[in-house]
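Note to self: the last two entries modelled the partners one at a time, which told us nothing about the interface. This time every component goes in together.
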Amino acid sequence: MAKKIHVTSTINGEPIEFLCDARQSLLEVLRDTLDFTGAKEGCNNGNCGACTVLLDGLPVDSCLVLGVEVEGAKITTIEGIAREAHLHPIQQCFLEDAALQCGICTPGFIMSTKALLDSNPNPSEHEIRFQLSGNLCRCTGYDKIIRAVQDSAKALSAGVERGGTKATQPDGRRAAKKQPQAR
Amino acid sequence: MKDFEYQTATTVDEAVSLLAARGERARVLTGGTDLIVQLREGLREADLVVDIKKIPELMELSYSPRSGLKLGAAVPCYRIYDDPEISRAYAALADSARIIGGWQIQSRASIGGNLCNSSPAADSIPSLIVYDVICHLAGPQGRRTVRVADFCTAPGRNVLGRGEILATLEFPPIKKNSGASYLRFIPRNEMDIAVVGAASWLQLDAAGERIEKARVALAAVAPTPLPLTAVSEWLVGKPATSETFAAAGDMASLAVKPISDKRGTVEYRKHLSGVLTKRTLVIAADRARGASAPAH
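The predicted structure of the combined assembly is written out below.
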């Protein structure tokens, strides 16, 4: 066994050092060494996106990145996007739109959504479906997820328009909940 | 996954000497989206993994209309389609880069890695072939160049020798009145391996009516990505019309000798070869006449 390698990186804004074997994926390091268990192991081969984290701002499958490769890099995980007691607007929209059932895919979807809305604040439905094609959900179908992303885009841009005020109320609820449409 | 030694090379010479010392037991790591899966699933073994992403030459992406495009072998796919000028100039390359896996894969995976993985179904290789890309290799015996059409030798195999790496891909400057396109067929909307892939490149006359030069290449219809030389030659001098492109598609269907596997039958792949050849020729001609690539 080769000796463990020392790695320094920034995770959710905090400088972090860890030791890992060369063969360990970033996902294994996050979950097993650093206790960031938000990123999930789904397929472990780059198909499902449940392990998505942001690496220097870009979404990656953390199962396909080696722990040793993130020396000097900035990583954002699902644990890093809520602010204190308040869910991130994307998390809030996924919750309110019931865009999850078992929840295994949800952290990955939320991280990909964050990357999408950071680069494209007002995506079309086609753009949302295309950019989130690397995330699979086997429970809900995708319609509610797409709706949650659209609502997240609205919530985030409303937050910006109001001079940076939060899209959520202090208790974490969104200000206005639209009525579900009659079917 | 079995443990291995990990080394980061910062120069091409360092990577070559590390790799040459270990031969088959050493593997090159760029995006890792093929290699890590292959190591984990036991499809390949390695005692040493050499990360070449810290080599500046291999991360270079530079373009000028006069000198063409220089694409370092480790440049991830997203950098290609994020660059509007490069996406416009080399639209078929951008077509490929946008559909290799999903966004998470494109953040890491490189076109060079797609070529070195040498899958018959690789989405980038038909585009590289129709642009007549020159591969710059570096090895223990020094540097050499190989035309991309000659790079792959069998499924998963290529011309790279012991200790040899792909350093850069050189795209010739864009010719006037030329355009190119890549399309693949998959049974899903995204995130799948091509049943058939097709790239076409056309150079038209100044009026945009007659074909002066053409290149067509297909993926997943042969043990290696396949240049359709006879179809390409037949197109020269023909009017750039839908009738011509349909006839080229019919020729492509007859020219390929695919296999049946879980992704499609021989008959299906022959049919798709024709359809995709025709469609990519239509798009290539539109782009040669100045149509811009659609944004996804």
